[in-house]
Every structure is written in structure tokens, then in C-alpha cells.
């Protein structure tokens, strides 16, 4: 099942995506997808189906309690960056306002020309937990989405923490929808491809991850309670712009796409701030 958050037809809510239509599911008691993950997905439509070109896609979880991103989590990416493989996950946070939904313009900031692309697999939590074991970790996964975890590289390097370079307003994207976990046989065997203006920039399977999804959930949940709707963004594969010679950065007029096998394709135009 594919579940999207949307704005359209005079309403804001979440919908089941079927046959190029969005079938509204929100109710007075369950107004958004984050709430639905904690209380159960409604099975009956709450309104008429809408063509996808008549809605605005929002990030699947527009108001996540936590968006936790994993740095340097692909072996080949560590190699291209000239960095040693980490012994523990490197984690930074993204704010809700730093990403937009599918099809919505991503904003290239005026403050820097070093606006880099990063295609990633996002894991959405469906069941709360603390101190979750690796053996039980996948029981807490609601589903998956594409994520454009774009980075402003010079700001990322201003300090020992990456936060500044990762949270420019509307600099990233998340979507187009949440594909439920039952649709994905093995999230560690998915082809991830990112394209800039149609040219393939990154192409790698999620098998290249250094820390698996169960390892990440177990590690994070030792220090934070994971809640329904929390997002773990699992890192980017090799091929990013700053490692290329010459470097390749995004600019207004570009289009960046992230396609993940079985999950979906996230596409966003780039505009100037």
C-alpha cells in the first residue's frame, strides 16, 4: 500500500494511492498519517478519489517528531570521501521545514553555490519503542520513502556538526509517499538511483550500507524513544557532487530525482531562493 500526505480539493490529509488517484482517508479522529500510524490506518475512504495531478504532495510525515539522518553509511561513499568507515552511526537531525513534498520546488539557497544532491532511503517508524533489539527492529517499521537529503556543503563544514548545512529551508525533499513494509521483501537489496537533469549521478544497492536498518533502530532507540511517524534517513551512496572532479552542484532550473526500487520516484525542480 502507498500512503501519501496531501493538500487539495479544499482539504489537507492523507490518502491511499491507487491507479493514479489519491483516495482520502483522514477523519476527525485520525487527521494525518502520523496519527494513523499510531492508531491504525482507516480502511474506508473519507472522500472522493482525486487525480494525482490535482493534489499537492506534502512530505509523507509533515510534522514528524524526529527526523534522524545517518551520515557516511555507504562503504563506497566513505571511500570516495576519503574517510574511514565509522565504528558507530553518525547522526544529525533535520527540521520538518527543511524538506518539501514530491513535485514541489526545492530552494537553492543564496548563501552558497555548493548545493549538493543526496538520494537516500527513508525508514518510517510505525510502532513506538525504546531499547529495541536488532532481532525485533523490523517489527517497528511502518514503511519506506525516497528522500533527497540535499546538503549545503560549505555550511556543513563550518563546525564539527553538520546541522547548518542540512537544514536550509525547503532544501530537501521527502516522498512521494510511504510504501508500506509488506510491499518490500528486503530493504537491504533495493537499487537506489539519483538523477540530475536526467543524468544518473548515483546508482547503488542498499546492500552497501555500513549499518543495517535493524542496527540503526537498535542504536537510536538506546537513547531516544522512537515514535510512530519518526523518520530515519539511512545515508547516501557514492556519486555525490562534491567528490566529483570538477564538483557538480545543483542550481536553479535543475531537476533532481531519487528512484528506489519498489518504493517510488521523488522528483523536484530546483528554484532560486
Verbal overview:
The chain has 273 residues and is mainly beta. The chain has two domains: 2-57, no CATH class; 67-272, Fumarylacetoacetate hydrolase, domain 2. It is 11% helix and 36% strand. The chain has helices spanning 33-39, 75-80, 153-156, 163-166, 213-220, and strands at 2-8, 11-18, 21-24, 50-51, 56-58, 67-71, 90-93, 99-100, 106-108, 115-116, 119-125, 141-148, 151-152, 172-180, 191-196, 199-205, 231-233, 255-260, 264-272. The strands form three sheets. Strands 1, 2, 3, 4, 5, 6, 7, 8, 11, 12, 14 and 17 form a twelve-stranded mixed sheet that branches. Strand 2 (11-18) and strand 3 form a beta hairpin. The radius of gyration is 18 Å and the shape is globular. The model has no long low-confidence stretch (mean pLDDT 96).
Question: How are the SSEs placed, and which strands pair?
Answer:
Blueprint: E1 2-8, E2 11-18, E3 21-24, H1 33-39, E4 50-51, E5 56-58, E6 67-71, H2 75-80, E7 90-93, E8 99-100, E9 106-108, E10 115-116, E11 119-125, E12 141-148, E13 151-152, H3 153-156, H4 163-166, E14 172-180, E15 191-196, E16 199-205, H5 213-220, E17 231-233, E18 255-260, E19 264-272
Amino acid at each position: 500500500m502507498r500512503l501519501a500526505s496531501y493538500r487539495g480539493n479544499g482539504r489537507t490529509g492523507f490518502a491511499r494511492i491507487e491507479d493514479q488517484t489519491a483516495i482520502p482517508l483522514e477523519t476527525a479522529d485520525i487527521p494525518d498519517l502520523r496519527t494513523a500510524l499510531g492508531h491504525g490506518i482507516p480502511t474506508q475512504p473519507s472522500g472522493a478519489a482525486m487525480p494525482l495531478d490535482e493534489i499537492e504532495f506534502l512530505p509523507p510525515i509533515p510534522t514528524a517528531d524526529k527526523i534522524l539522518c545517518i551520515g557516511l553509511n555507504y562503504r563506497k561513499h566513505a571511500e570516495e570521501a576519503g574517510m574511514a568507515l565509522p565504528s558507530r552511526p553518525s547522526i544529525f537531525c533535520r527540521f520538518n521545514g527543511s524538506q518539501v513534498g514530491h513535485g514541489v520546488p526545492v530552494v537553492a539557497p543564496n548563501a552558497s553555490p555548493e548545493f549538493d544532491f543526496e538520494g537516500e532511503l527513508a525508514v518510517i517508524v510505525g510502532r513506538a519503542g525504546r531499547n529495541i533489539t536488532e532481532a525485533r527492529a523490523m517489527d517497528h517499521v511502518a514503511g519506506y520513502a525516497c528522500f533527497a537529503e540535499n546538503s549545503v556543503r560549505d555550511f556543513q563544514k563550518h563546525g564539527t556538526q553538520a546541522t547548518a548545512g542540512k537544514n536550509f529551508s525547503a532544501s530537501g525533499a521527502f516522498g512521494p509517499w510511504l510504501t508500506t513494509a509488506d510491499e518490500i521483501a528486503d530493504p537491504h537489496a533495493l537499487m537506489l538511483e539519483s538523477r540530475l537533469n536526467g543524468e544518473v549521478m548515483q546508482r547503488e544497492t542498499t546492500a552497501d550500507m555500513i549499518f543495517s536498518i535493524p542496527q540503526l533502530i537498535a542504536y537510536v532507540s538506546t537513547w531516544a524513544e522512537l515514535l510512530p511517524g519518526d523518520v530515519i534517513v539511512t545515508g547516501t551512496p557514492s556519486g555525490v557532487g562534491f567528490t566529483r572532479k570538477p564538483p557538480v552542484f545543483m542550481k536553479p532550473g535543475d531537476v533532481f530525482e531519487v528512484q528506489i526500487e519498489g518504493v517510488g520516484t521523488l522528483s523536484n525542480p530546483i528554484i532560486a531562493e
